[in-house]
Amino acid sequence: MERYAMVVLCGRTWGLVCSITRLVHFGPLSQELRHKAESVAQVDAVMIADTRPGRSLGEVFTSAQDAYSRAGFPDEWQMHHQGGSAGYEAREFVAVPGMKESVAGGQVFAWNPSIRGTKSEDTILVSDSGNEILTAIPGWPVVTVQLKEQTILRPAILEV
Question: CA-based angle 82:37:64, to the nearest 5?
Answer without folding.
Answer: 35
